[in-house]
Design goal:
This protein has about 60 residues and is of the alpha+beta class. It has one domain (about 5-59). The chain has two helices and two strands. A two-stranded parallel ribbon has the order 1-2. The protein starts with a strand and ends with a helix.
């Protein structure tokens, strides 16, 4: 059973674009854990934290 864990950090180009490429490359792998695994994205509204906004866009 394979797993892909992303530990990416950066701006939109990394969090959304590069992490999406990783997700697409991991097709068929049962587990993909994005760099947002330890962040509660449901609480802060858009515009409150730029870095969380990038992660919400990826989600």
């Amino acid at each position: 059973m394979g797993r892909v864990v992303s530990a990416l950090s950066g701006l939109r180009g990394v969090i959304v674009d590069t992490q999406t490429q990783f997700l697409n490359a991991a097709a068929g792998v049962p587990w993909f854990i994005p760099s947002t695994f330890s962040i509660d994205l449901t609480r802060p509204p858009y515009g409150h934290n730029r870095n969380l906004d990038f992660r919400k866009a990826f989600a």
